[in-house]
Amino acid sequence: MIDSTRVAALYNLGLALYEQGQLEDAIAAYQKAINLDSSNANVYFNLAIALQQQGQIEPAIGTYRQALLLDPKNATAYNNMANLLAIHGQASEAISVYRQAIRLNPKNASAYYNLGVSLYNQGDIKKASRVLNRAHNEYREQGNIEQAEKIEQLMQQISQKSSQTATPPQSSATTSN
Predict the structure, then answer these.
(1) In whole angstroms, what is the distance from residue 31 CA to residue 147 CA?
(2) Residue 75: CB partners within 8 Å, gap ≥ 6?
């Protein structure tokens, strides 16, 4: 039988320790809660965040996967996991996971931005530009002008780079008749 009061106490302790920057103790509290109740998606989600903060990329990815098995509608978990996959060099899987985050929350400006950057890094400039434009629009709608302006700058840089590579180099030789 699950002692839900003890699980809740350990979970809340983990949250408090995390907020105080005591990551190792927070991780230990979350792991104890999971040992008592392995069906709590929130505990896995917060454990993954703490592991991510500690730089434990692979364990964090695995923990996000577990959180998503229990709560497949957690768009933030998909976005966070995709960030880690991208850092870990798994770009194509990251792109797929960002798309899942967007399917679950079509207003998720951060997921659009991250997807756009990943597509750009993969060399898919056209898709990256479209997705970054969507991120820009979402941030504007949310009133996050600072982030929208950052994306505008990035889109200008991308546009400049793509126009430089699209234009063939000019020959300096002149022809005489």
Answers:
(1) 35
(2) 101, 102, 104, 105, 108, 111
The token pair that represents 110 in the structure block: 């951060």
User: How far separated are the first and last CA of the chain, in Å rounded?
Assistant: 95
- Asked if residue 13 lies in contact with residue 29, where contact means CB atoms within 8 angstroms, the answer is yes
pTM for this prediction: 0.85
* Strand ranges (E), 17-172: none
Q: Same CATH fold, 94-160 and 1-72?
A: yes
CATH fold of 1-72 reads 1.25.40
CB proximity list for 9: less than 8 A, separation 6 or greater: none
Q: How confident is the model at residue 58 (pLDDT cuts 50, 70, 90)?
A: very high
For the segment 2-57, what is each residue's pLDDT rounded down to a tens digit? Answer: 788 999 999 999 999 999 999 999 999 999 999 999 999 999 999 999 999 999 99
d(CA 68, CA 93): 15
CATH code of the region 94-160: 1.25.40.10
